[in-house]
Amino acid sequence: MKWILLKITILFTFAVIIAAESPGFSDAVSRSLPSVIYIESYLISNGKKKQSGFGSGTVFSDLGHIITNHHVVKNADYYEAVMYDGTRCTFKKYPGNRYYISDSETDLALMRLDCRNYLYKPIEKEKDNNLKKGDWVIAIGNPYGLSNSVTKGIVSSTNRSDVGFANIEDFIQSDVPINPGNSGGPLINTSGKMVGLNTAIRTVSGGFQGISFSIPVNIVESVYTDLLRFGHVRRGWIGVMVTEKSIAATGRKAVTVVSTLENSPAQLIGLQKGDIIAEVDNNSIESKSELTKIVKNKPIGARMDLCVFRSGILKRFSFTMNEKDYFAKVGEAINTLYSVYGIRLDINASNDKIIISDMSQFRYAENKLLQGDVITALNGQSVENLSDFASVLRRYKYKISFLEVNRNEKKIIIRLKNY
Asked: Residue 387 pLDDT more than 80?
């Protein structure tokens, strides 16, 4: 009798432990479900529409902005949405007669619902998204058109790249069952907060086979913000061609500079062919995809630090991230300055200050400039960096009356004569 009671006690205790370790998901799902929509895609021919695809979307604002995957909406002419409560909605158009604005680099797209008098419920986002292997996660979406479906699993890995689904990859890998139609729906945690956007599966059959990929919520939010504000994603640019090489001594791969592009930050800070990029922002890198991920996820205006080996010597460089178009405009100003005045500029790799790098062709001056002079003002207008300099130079139609430079902590005025 005592043995039977002991077994019952053990079994009961084991059941209590299992129950304690197995979280309930219904509260999390009920918080997030109203933020998930079903997207129907249509082709239009001869005035008739024919459904061509389906997917999911996640509500991001109370104005009806939604985020989905670019691949969900890219091959259609018209779209309709079905809200979680069955309400049908259409979508508003963006300039250019487009129903969406997208970023193919991350496979994300922004759309806006047009559902009169409907109260949209934006998804809650996890601000402290420190996912770890083994954490429970839940996917909500519309697999194979089965609306409001919920599946669960655990995080298998984070920061997955080189998967082959997008140009910029930094995926959450999980074993949550997702299938065609789940793309664009949220991956949530047990608090009901979004931690990622379900995007792809690794499959041979076309259906779920144990490996799913989601875009982390911080990347989704960043892309969403740029698409909403600027109509495109602003990304930084280094302007360097690289290759991967194996280092025989260590057996590790290294990212090696092949060339730098004209007027690029790589050229301006002095990167050279053969440089081995060992670290970016204190993160060691061994592949081109790692370099691409870090560079393209870096906010515009932020500083980027590079650590490179050159002939066995460690060198450090730093510059401010900006878009490629920015450097094109700066390059135009720099080239004009040289062709008209014979002045070449460079930037200080540690603080972006404008430095005179070459004046061998310098002319039209009462006082000579010296290599290493730091330009602080142009025609009386203060300039902090090359962007400021280019803007002021264009404003004065490339005519310089005088430059103010800092030389050995002394302010010097250089007057120029225009012909």
From this structure: no
3-class state of residue 188 by DSSP: strand
What ranges make up the beta strands (E) of 70-148? 78-82, 88-91, 101-103, 108-114, 136-141
For the chain, what are the domain ranges?
Answer: 30-114, 136-230, 240-320, 332-415
Active site residues per annotation? 71, 107, 183
Distance CA 174, CA 155 (A): 4
The third-level CATH classification (topology) of the domain covering 332-415 is Pdz3 Domain (2.30.42)
| CATH of segment(s) 240-320 | 2.30.42.10
Q: Specify the CATH number of the domain 30-114.
A: 2.40.10.10
CA 343, 347, 352, 355 torsion-angle sign: negative
Helical (H) or strand (E) element with 334? helix 324-341
What are the phi and psi torsion angles at 127 (to 5°)?
Answer: -75, -40
The model's pLDDT over 332-383, given as tens digits with 9 standing for 90+, comes to 777 777 777 777 777 665 666 788 877 766 665 555 778 888 889 988 888 8
**Plot region of 281 (φ>0 → left; ψ -120 to 50 → alpha; else → beta):** left
